[in-house]
Amino acid sequence: GYEAILRRQAQRESAARTYARSLPIVPVRARGLTIEGADGRRYLDCLSGAGTLALGHNHPVVLEAVRKVLDSGAPLHVLDLATPVKDAFTSELFATLPPELAADARIQFCGPAGTDAVEAALKLVRTATGRRGLFAFTGAYHGMTAGALAVSGGADDVSVTRLPYPQSYRCPYGVGGERGAELSARWTATLLDDPKSGVTAPAGMIVEAVQGEGGVLPAPDAWMRRMRSITARHSVPLVVDEVQTGVGRTGTFWAVEHSGVVPDVMVLSKAIGGSLPLAVIVYRSGLDAWEPGAHAGTFRGNQLAMAAGTATLAYVRENRLADRAATLGARMLGRLQGLQAAHPCVGDVRGRGLMIGVELVDPDAAGPDDPVPPAAPALARAVQQECLARGLIVELGGRHSAVVRLLPPLTLTDEQATAVLDRFADALAAAER
Ligand code: PMP
């Protein structure tokens, strides 16, 4: 039975296992938004493989693309050799890039995970600039390998200068909004402009346009433009990590497009593989200072992932799912703001497109000088469990693990969005009691 499976997993898997702790489900079937467990229960999946499933589970165009490769007799493993499957993926991907980058882009297949592409990006800018240091942001998440960890929030690495990521709620400067973002930008500019700051130009700056794991924090567009002009002025490559924000999720195909910023390097994974493992970096050709073989890896050519990815990218583009994410996301935010008004424990509701966060707080524990109440991780955990009891899968994030994150597929229908929010509202009311 499925309980034996859960028991064996708990015994055999490492103490570091994550989702399986809070979501004791044994999925056996899935389609679109819905997962069915071995116990016969059905769940609405708003975790979507941590933002991977742009088209939901087992979308017909993805299955068809994978089957086509399987049935064609094409080799499934070819290292990084050229194939028609890779050629089609690269063409489709380049068609989605900001035109200024696409016109002059190189692609490095990394892989298979997002963190591998982050490593490649850091190595690329270090090679191209001959510098060592990096600029990264508080609360950032870039992965679990050594280099990616070093640029993630909470890490302590001598080569990384940590800069304040702008956020309206819990603003590090206590002012929030555009003013807080302005202070973050000014601090960054000062470090580079002031010869006595003790900070020299780094090999690159790595940033998320919306921090995902950090608690769904959308950076203001004006701030992204400031980062672009500051880095450009000092010839510092700007690396934008679109691993979670990419492929329409935030309401534009890539999240940097909101600001009009053209990065020097884009780090891509998750949704680009259409639910199979795939990770790449795309970058301005001027950075391509690598010697042949300077970056290798056995699994840089997953043919099935490329085929699934091509189908996903094309489907999102042809069906304008980024626009759909923008309108539906705004509608969902509106309803969540209604919940915020009715529930003092909802401290903040924020997001961009279908990347949504609800921060839970303890209003009674706020001190007289606190600009906002303290985060309430235990309540967030209770809301997650009440959601699960109502057949809704959500994940937590943020620095205090007090942000409930909604990452539904972009194919979400209006009716499904209503069902998700109905269940969430019930769960919130139950957890509050
Ligand atoms: N960058 C960002 C922005 C991410 O959200 C993640 C994964 N949550 C990663 C990098 C790392 O990707 P992976 O887990 O595939 O290594």
Strand order of the largest sheet: 4-12-11-10-7-5-6
- Could you tell me the CATH topology label of the largest domain: Aspartate Aminotransferase, domain 2
Number of domains: 2
* Helix-and-strand structural type: alpha/beta
Q: What's the tally of helices? A: 14
Number of strands: 17
- The CATH class assignment of the largest domain is Alpha Beta
Bound small molecules, by name, code or SMILES, are: 4'-deoxy-4'-aminopyridoxal-5'-phosphate
Beta-strand share of residues: 15-25%
Low-confidence stretches: none
CATH superfamily of the largest domain: Type I PLP-dependent aspartate aminotransferase-like (Major domain)
Helix content: 25-40%
Distance between the termini: 34 Å
Largest sheet, strands/sense/barrel = 7 strands, mixed
CATH architecture of the largest domain: 3-Layer(aba) Sandwich
Shape: globular
What is the arithmetic mean of pLDDT?
A: 96
CA-based gyration radius: 21 Å
